[in-house]
Design brief:
By secondary structure, this protein is of the alpha/beta class. 39% of the residues lie in helices and 16% in strands. It is globular and about 55 Å long.
Length: 318
């Protein structure tokens, strides 16, 4: 697997994946190609050997096909958590459709696609329905496809536990919508390792693998854990459904990307845990790390004004 194209390689999961790909395929003539509309901002991977940052728009068919002609396999990580119907369709449905056509035009068969746990055409949220539609767009006999469905992903630099830890460093109490929603958080390094092993193991072709950690938590438990690990433990007040939806509506009206949206709440109506009907990380020989083992290593490191960076970034107020 000498040349791998990573779509979404400049993001949170992408940076971890590029490190694992360098470890696995970084010798000799191997190339890891990462397209980005703003390569100069991809600081996390700029210095990795054999990683080639390329200025490109992956939503442009001609550019996507040109990128693929130089590669043996492709990983698709491109995703959004918030947006309009049009935005979800563009990123989660139209891009996979374009990718399937571009792979056919470039003669590339091997594809690993990162979807989401709970993706289903009948799911209650636009996010999960669009994720299911994206998987369907890639279901082609012309592709050697493996689909990964992770639960919520945590790790250094995440916008999940870090966000809740930062909020607790500022506010004396945390009113929380969806406090009883269930998750099975998975470490970003375990997801990255799973992608690499799928590229290595052709017996995973045709499979959908659920990427989950070893433990199930409610959202309220995870928020409390984030505060405890960061040294800012605050009371967490579970909001009733009506107030939670009102809170999410207000957050959608704030500048920038919302910390919580109504569509997020709709997604949380589906337990974000392993179904047991599909293979998990054990299928790839991975024993996933626990939140308790990893979160204390990165939460609470920053003190003073730096603790607000995650929060400020969420509302574009840097």
């Amino acid at each position: 697997m000498a040349n791998v194209l990573v779509l979404g390689g400049t993001g949170f999961v992408g940076a971890a994946l590029c490190e694992k790909l360098v470890e696995r395929f970084g010798g000799g003539d191997a190339r890891i190609v990462v397209p980005s509309r703003r390569p100069a901002r991809a600081k996390a991977i700029q210095m990795l050997p054999t990683v080639e940052l390329v200025a490109a728009d992956v939503h442009d068919d001609a550019q996507l096909t040109r990128l693929l002609r130089r590669c043996d396999a492709v990983v698709n990580l491109v995703a959004i958590l918030h947006g309009s119907d049009k935005a979800f369709d563009k990123v989660h449905v139209q891009l996979p459709r374009r990718l399937a056509l571009a792979c056919a035009a470039a003669g590339v068969r091997r594809l690993t696609h990162v979807s989401a746990l709970g993706a289903d055409a009948q799911a209650p949220s636009r996010y999960l329905r669009s994720k299911a539609a994206g998987e369907a767009a890639l279901a082609s006999p012309a592709l050697d496809l493996t689909v990964l469905r992770p639960s919520v992903i945590f790790g250094e630099g995440d916008r999940f536990l870090n966000l809740f830890a930062s909020l607790q460093s500022v506010f004396p109490v945390i009113p929380l919508a969806g406090a009883e929603a269930r998750f099975q958080p998975v470490w970003v390094d375990d997801v990255a390792r799973a992608i690499v092993r799928c590229l290595d193991d052709r017996t995973t072709i045709g499979e959908t693998i659920e990427c989950c950690g070893p433990e199930v938590y409610t959202l309220g438990q995870l928020v409390r854990m984030a505060g405890r690990c960061a040294g800012h433990r605050r009371p967490v007040i579970a909001l009733p459904a009506s107030l939670g939806r009102f809170q999410a509506t207000v957050m959608e009206l704030l500048p920038g990307e919302p910390m919580m949206s109504r569509d997020n709440l709709d997604s949380m109506r589906v337990a974000n845990v392993a179904t047991g009907t599909r293979p998990g990380l054990a299928r790839l020989g991975i024993r996933p790390a626990t939140v308790e083992a990893i979160a204390p290593l990165y939460l609470g490191r920053d003190q003073g004004p730096a603790r607000l960076d995650i929060w400020r970034a969420a509302v574009h107020r840097r």
